[in-house]
Design goal:
about 425 residues; alpha/beta; Beta Polymerase, domain 2; Rossmann fold; elongated
């Protein structure tokens, strides 16, 4: 079955999430290796969530226990004792609820800034890395791909691209309410990663032209050349001459001693772990906006496409979760038909078939299986899953309960799947 263990900004404090900054692939790999019942894992680790999506064997009760244990062991291995707080507050979702949550996350509907655009790319990259490293599973790959497609459709059909939000955009909206004109504002950007590039684009959308970049890792010059910015290696001097300082890196970069006496600036900390020492916000002339502050303002943001996007996500997640409920029936049908075809192929080989009979049978099987497989999923999505299962049992004499593996594991059953893939690669509906 599919499960999601999630510690996010709704159930876990930012302070705890900050201490849990981990590499997503490392988390997925450790979770997969934590139990023989975990068939695949994909982790999502961002500034406001640490989530583990698992393809796991077992009944709901045992699977929940295994999922929480895998989450705790993996986090403990990467973050030490700090993992206990996240595990305590983490929520476990299974099957349909896990699917709906993933779809919502990809669409930005579970973010601090509702509608943020970065998260879908983060999920897609996490899944791709897990797949390339052999940590994921076929079912996880499929559900993530569908979630990404749904997120794109929600953004397109709900016109979310015009009203989309990200943490950077929301933060800049909050800062902009205190400024007279972005065009005359001196901005210092601390960080040179993907999020920094997104922030530069958001700044320029608002008319900012005087942007200086500093990198604690010495990459300011290269980033400045690429983005047409002004580089600096002196963060203290740059802070002293800036009106707005935005940090989006992976380390503590601004401390009290980095702020010169008399400096007056709005400092925006978008980092997790925290990039700015909280004591900086207590200095005269400095106003500090961190993730906690941004979250408090997030509910005030009006995203006009949110209602439409939620409707699209709800419908797609329901259709996907419902359709997968008939996968055991589809798999049983395929195995039944393919076993009969294999018998006929063996007979043909015994009569000296040169491969043409086998090729024709494979093609015919593909044609015959395509329509019932497609219609089975379509009827299931329309709420007729029980009818589909009854039809397969009645028409083909199959006992799906006796056959029965859960949908989450059937397509990944190691021994059977390898045997099927060799004979069914050309007969896939």
């Amino acid at each position: 079955m599919l499960l999601c263990v999630t510690a996010n900004h709704r159930n876990t404090s930012f302070e705890t999430l900050e201490r849990l900054s981990v590499d997503a692939l490392d988390l997925a790999r450790k979770a997969r290796d934590a139990s023989k019942h975990v068939r695949g894992a994909v982790a999502v680790a961002t500034c406001n969530r640490v989530e583990l999506y698992l393809d796991i064997d077992g009944s709901p009760i045992t699977a929940h226990t295994e999922a929480r244990a895998a989450f705790q062991r993996a986090l403990t291995g990467l973050a030490g004792p700090e993992a206990s707080a996240a595990t305590e507050h983490a929520q476990i979702l299974d099957d349909a609820a896990a699917v709906h949550h993933l779809f919502s996350v990809c669409a930005g509907l579970e973010s601090v800034a509702v509608g943020e655009e970065e998260i879908v790319g983060q999920v897609r990259r996490a899944a791709a890395e897990a797949r390339t490293s052999g940590v994921s599973s076929g079912r996880l790959d499929h559900v993530v791909q569908e979630a990404v497609r749904t997120a794109r459709r929600a953004r397109t059909e709900a016109d979310a691209s015009k009203a989309g939000r990200s943490l950077a955009r929301l933060a800049l909206d909050l800062v902009g309410s205190r400024l007279v004109d972005w065009g005359s504002t001196r901005v210092l950007l601390v960080g040179t990663g993907r999020y920094a590039a997104t922030t530069v684009a958001s700044l320029r959308e608002r008319g900012a032209v005087d942007i200086t970049v500093y990198s604690p890792t010495g990459r300011a010059q290269l980033f400045a050349n690429r983005m047409n910015l002004t580089p600096t290696n002196d963060v203290r001097r740059a802070i002293g001459s800036s009106d707005v300082v935005i940090t989006c890196t992976t380390r503590l970069s601004v401390e009290v001693e980095d702020v010169p006496s008399g400096a007056r600036a709005i400092v925006v900390d978008l980092g997790l772990p925290r990039n700015v020492d909280p004591a900086v916000g207590k200095l005269d002339g400095i106003a500090l906006l961190d993730l906690e502050t941004i979250r408090l303002h997030a509910p005030l943001v009006h995203w006009s496409a949110e209602e439409d996007a939620r409707a699209i996500v709800d419908a797609s997640a329901h259709a996907y979760a419902t359709a997968t409920s008939v996968e055991p029936a589809i798999i049983a049908l395929r195995e039944h038909v393919l076993s009969l075809v294999d018998v006929e192929i063996d007979r043909a080989r015994g009569r000296g078939d040169d491969g043409r009979v086998e090729e024709a049978l494979r093609h015919l099987t593909s044609v015959l299986l395509h329509t019932p497989s497609t219609l089975a999923r379509r009827h299931a999505a329309a709420g007729r899953a029980d009818d589909v299962i009854a039809a397969v049992e009645t028409l083909y004499g199959l006992d799906l309960r006796a056959h029965g593996r859960p949908a989450a594991t059937a397509s990944e059953d190691t021994g059977h799947a390898r045997a099927r893939s060799s004979r069914a690669s050309s007969a896939s509906p």
